[in-house]
Every structure is written in structure tokens, then in C-alpha cells.
UniProtKB/TrEMBL annotation:
GO terms for biological process: cell division; proteolysis. Residues 49-193 form the AAA+ ATPase domain. This is Cell division protein FtsH. Its cofactor is Zn(2+). GO terms for molecular function: ATP binding; ATP hydrolysis activity; ATP-dependent peptidase activity; metal ion binding; metalloendopeptidase activity. In the C-terminal section; belongs to the peptidase M41 family. The chain holds residues 55 to 328 of 367 of the full protein. Keywords: ATP-binding, Cell cycle, Cell division, Hydrolase, Membrane, Metal-binding, Metalloprotease, Nucleotide-binding, Protease, Transmembrane, Transmembrane helix, Zinc. It comes from Paenibacillus pini JCM 16418. It comes from the Bacteria.
Length: 274
């Protein structure tokens, strides 16, 4: 069942070059990943293995992309999952899914002849929320299982396992998860600045016919506060406007209209959910 649900798994070819902006986050992540690659030196120096990296930041900023690029960079198998997949009515099901996730990663690495596996858990706060207050009690077993699995990661084992988790709410996480030896590397994946936004627009405009009059610098300026996911939408919507007008090339006004549309869309989403 879990295998089928994990749609994001499978061969990953995504590289850091395909992620726009986020220069600092990419740099920090690459440095952390070198620990996974240089495991022999790590062992010799008696450094404890790095088991978990936590990516924090608002939705749609590229945290999932980062995890995929990490798998590519380290030549690891990539197994993805989300916190909400572990939430079940019946006690114990979540915990056994966690076990299954790790087993899955080890099996796939063996099958694909890889020395390492990266397990990505999006929305980690769903299972790793603070345990005080009693409300989260039913998830305790799931979280405990995750902690047990993390404690069982050794740098000498093959395949080497690295967990990457993402959350929009770092302050919500139980300290058992963030203490040394667990998710002790935190990398902030923030909203892109203007230069980052331009880079993201360029990446998503690559396979689209942009008119020579298009000024992405200006679009980057107008899209202040947009996430990578929203910028991807801007490019896509602009292409749709172009098609509607029976034109062959995307023009500046299509992009401007798309910015308004994406902004409006967000606003109505928020209103309807209140
Ligand atoms: P969430 O917290 O909602 O899971 P996320 O941070 O994991 O979001 P992604 O799933 O990585 O975000 O990004 C969603 C989509 O937005 C990507 O598939 C991509 O098209 C686009 N995108 C987001 N950030 C970037 C970026 N930095 N560069 C290029 N594309 C991006």
C-alpha cells in the first residue's frame, strides 16, 4: 500500500542547478551532504553520523526539490513520504508505516545497487509535533518509532541512511526530534529575493517561447513575496493567456496579468478557508 502511495519516489534526475535562488540553502545543504559522501573520513575521525537534516520555510519554496537534488548529488535512492500518511485512526498503524518506510529505503538501495538512501518526510510536524498537552497522544507511537529508526542509523551500515524532513512550523516540533543526533542540522529555505525570483522565472521560462520584449527583471520586481511555486504558476498562466489570444509568444502583459491572477487566487483561497 505504502509503495503505491509514495508517488514522489522513483528515479530522480533533479539537480541543484534546477533550483532557482536559495544560494545559501543550497550551499549549506551540499556541505552537509558531503558528510554522507565522505563517510570513511567521518568514521576514522569518530564523528557521529549525520542522521537528519531539517528544511524549514514557507510552502512552495523548493524544500521537496532540495531533497530530490540531495539524492542526486549523493547518488542515493530517494524515498519520499509525508507526515499525513502516518496519521491513522488505529493505534500502531503509523508506527508500522514508519518501519515500512525505512525497510523500503534499504530494500531499494540494495536492489538499485546504491550505497546510500535519502528518506524525505514532508510535513514532519504532523507526526513530530510537541507532545505536551495530551492532544497528540495518538501519534506518540509513530513519533517513537521514527526516533527508534533514527537511533538505529550507523555510519558503518550499508546502505547509509539520511533523513531529510521539511516543515513550515519548526517551532511546533518536539525537542526529541531536534536534539543532537537527530535532526540537528537546520536549513532555512525562505521566500526568494528579487534575484532568486528572476532565476526561478528564468528556469520555468526555459521551455516557453518568451517574446524578446519580455523583461523578467521587472516581473521579478512585481512579484515581491511570491514563492517558487507561485512563480511557476505565473509562467504557466502567462502561457495559457497567450494561447487564449492565439499568439505564439508570451508577452510582458501576459506575465503581468498572471501575477495579478496568482495573487488573487491566493487571496480567494485564504478567504474561503476562513
Ligand atoms: P511545501 O512546503 O508546500 O511542500 P516545498 O517547499 O516542498 O513546498 P516544492 O514542492 O519543492 O515546495 O515546490 C513546488 C513547485 O514549485 C516545484 O515543483 C517547482 O515547480 C516550484 N518551485 C518552488 N521553489 C522553486 C525554486 N526555488 N526553483 C524552481 N522552482 C521552484
Amino acid at each position: 500500500g505504502a509503495e503505491r502511495k509514495r508517488k514522489k519516489s522513483g528515479p530522480q534526475k533533479l539537480t541543484f542547478e534546477q533550483i532557482g535562488g536559495q544560494d545559501n540553502a543550497k550551499q549549506e545543504l551540499r556541505e552537509a551532504l558531503d558528510f554522507l559522501i565522505r563517510y570513511e573520513e567521518i568514521q576514522k575521525l569518530g564523528i557521529r553520523p549525520m542522521k537528519g537534516i531539517l528544511l524549514t520555510g514557507p510552502p512552495g519554496t523548493g524544500k521537496t526539490l532540495m531533497a530530490k537534488a540531495a539524492a542526486h548529488y549523493t547518488d542515493s535512492v530517494f524515498v519520499a513520504s509525508s507526515g499525513s500518511e502516518f496519521v491513522e485512526m488505529y493505534v500502531g498503524v503509523g508506527a508500522s508505516r514508519v518501519r515500512e518506510l525505512f525497510r523500503d529505503a534499504r530494500n531499494r538501495a540494495a536492489k538499485e545497487n546504491k550505497n546510500s538512501a535519502i528518506i524525505f518526510i514532508d510535513e514532519i510536524d504532523v507526526i513530530g509535533g510537541k507532545r505536551e498537552g495530551g492532544q497528540q497522544r495518538e501519534y506518540d507511537q509513530t513519533l517513537n518509532q521514527l526516533l527508534t529508526e533514527m537511533d538505529g542509523i550507523y555510519s558503518s551500515e550499508s546502505p547509509r541512511i539520511l533523513l531529510i524532513a521539511a516543515t513550515n512550523r519548526k517551532e511546533m516540533l518536539d525537542s526529541a526530534l531536534t536534539r543532537p543526533g537527530r535532526f540537528d542540522r537546520h536549513i532555512e529555505v525562505d521566500l526568494p529575493d528579487k534575484k532568486g525570483r528572476k532565476h526561478i522565472l528564468e528556469l520555468h521560462g526555459k521551455n516557453k517561447p518568451l517574446s524578446s520584449t519580455v523583461n523578467l527583471d521587472k516581473i521579478a520586481e512585481e512579484s515581491y513575496g511570491f514563492s517558487g511555486a507561485q512563480l511557476e504558476s505565473v509562467m504557466n498562466e502567462a502561457a495559457i493567456y497567450t494561447m487564449r489570444e492565439d499568439l505564439k509568444e508570451i508577452e510582458q502583459r501576459h506575465l503581468s496579468m498572471s501575477i495579478d491572477k496568482v495573487m488573487m487566487g491566493e487571496r480567494t483561497d485564504r478567504e474561503s478557508s476562513e
